[in-house]
Amino acid sequence: MNPDFRRLFAAVDAMDSSTFGAFLASDAQFRFGNLPVVTGREAIAGFLDAWFPSIAAIRHEDLAIRDYGDTVLVEGRVTYTRKDGTELSAPFANVFDMIDGSIKGYRIYVDNSGLQLGR
């Protein structure tokens, strides 16, 4: 049985890498857009711990979850709040490869180039 993906996105929205990491297999692979693949639960949590401070908030909504057993697809809308309080909202699609109820592969497809982080 696959985990509750709404809880996974709630952990991301809370910027809680520890709770997020509990959904992952120990050797999970994570790819965020066109960034390099990050491998391993601890490395992925570390990536998120480094990335979360670049934004003020994140919110996922309008989730459509399609569970095919070994593969779960999630589509929705993500809204990033920049440090200056302005927002960028964009559609996203995530592909999850599952093994024994844990996420083995996590691929995020979103155009968040409008964030212009570091400015």
Q: How would you describe this structure to a colleague?
A:
The protein has a six-stranded mixed beta sheet with strand order 2-1-6-5-4-3, with helices on one face. The chain has helices at 5-13, 17-21, 41-51, and strands at 24-32, 38-39, 57-67, 71-81, 87-99, 102-110. The model has no long low-confidence stretch (mean pLDDT 94). By secondary structure, the protein is an alpha+beta fold. The chain has one domain: Roll (Nuclear Transport Factor 2, Chain: A). It starts with a helix and ends in a 9-residue tail after the last strand. The chain is 21% helix and 46% strand.
The Cα radius of gyration reads 14 Å
Question: What is the number of helices?
Answer: 3
Q: Write down the secondary-structure element order.
A: HHEEHEEEE
The span between the termini is 43 Å
Query: Would you tell me which CATH topology applies?
Result: Nuclear Transport Factor 2, Chain: A
Which CATH architecture is right? Roll
Structural class: alpha+beta
Strand content: over 45%
Q: Please list the strands of the largest sheet in the order they lie side by side.
A: 2-1-6-5-4-3
Let me know the largest β-sheet.
Answer: 6 strands, mixed
Q: How many β-strand runs?
A: 6
Low-confidence stretches: none
Into how many domains do the coordinates divide?
1
Shape descriptor: globular
The portion of residues assigned to helices is: 10-25%
Query: What's the CATH class label?
Result: Alpha Beta
What's the overall average pLDDT, rounded? 94
